[in-house]
Design brief:
The complex is a heterodimer of chains A (116) and B (110). Chain A has 116 residues and is mostly beta strands. Chain A has no helices and eleven strands. With 110 residues, chain B is mostly beta strands. The chains are: A mainly beta (116), B mainly beta (110).
Chain lengths: 116, 110
């Protein structure tokens, strides 16, 4: 149990385009999902917290107009990187909190974004 | 300020050589301390949750312990497949967000 998927696993795009990443909880309902960013050899940095049916809460320094988050259902959250630039290239990882296991987060496999 | 510090940054062991990884933390109102394993290019894989001082959990060659200030991840007779980055995180306070340490990169040589 507690499986989280992400799609795509890898994406390469041109500068100026937008990229959408999906995060799904496959076998549980996630009232809260989280989006992280990880640079090489560094730990995970929380970008935003997403609650189903409400607006996401962004961490300080994260541009909400650049990183659009939608959490339309209890099993799906999406992150859209708008007008991507090379500095947005990173490893993006989502996690989901099981409503029945309030304190535990389960992570997706990550999405490697490369902006040319 | 809530903070998590992991040591060592990197650890190289011979197969069968037991050791421990450390996670020191400061958090207001600890809700949980979490250990994850992360392989290169993958998302973190959940290992353990510890909630209160004195608690211990085991899974195969791994054993996690918790005190009021730190947690240890003990690895007994490690195998090469245990090579990975081990991440420690805590959640607490009003936000209940995870705060991660920078991880320990473990390499187990055959």
């Amino acid at each position: 149990g507690a499986v989280v998927s992400q799609h795509p696993s890898r994406v390469i795009c041109k500068s100026g385009t937008s990229v959408k990443i999906e995060c799904r909880s496959l076998d549980f309902q996630a009232t809260t999902m989280f989006w992280y960013r990880q640079f090489p050899k560094q730990s995970l940095m929380l970008m935003a917290t997403s609650n189903e049916g409400s607006k996401a809460t962004y961490e300080q320094g994260v541009e909400k107009d650049k990183f659009l988050i939608n959490h339309a259902s209890l099993t799906l959250s999406t992150l859209t990187v708008t007008s991507a630039h090379p500095e947005d290239s990173s490893f993006y990882i989502c996690s989901a909190r099981d409503a029945d296991r309030e304190n535990e987060q389960f992570f997706g496999p990550g999405t490697r974004l490369t902006v040319l | 300020e809530d903070q998590v510090t992991q040591s060592p940054e990197a650890l190289r062991l011979q197969e069968g050589e037991s050791s421990s990884l450390n996670c020191s933390y400061t958090v207001s109102g600890l809700r949980g301390l979490f250990w994850y394993r992360q392989d290169p290019g993958k998302g973190p894989e959940f290992l353990f949750t510890l909630y209160s001082a004195g608690e211990e959990k085991e899974k195969e060659r791994l054993k996690a312990t918790l005190t009021k200030k730190e947690s240890f991840l003990h690895i007994t007779a490690p195998k090469p497949e245990d090579s990975a980055t081990y991440l420690c995180a805590v959640s607490g306070g009003a936000t209940n967000k995870l705060i991660f340490g920078t991880g320990t990169l473990l390499a187990v040589q055959p």
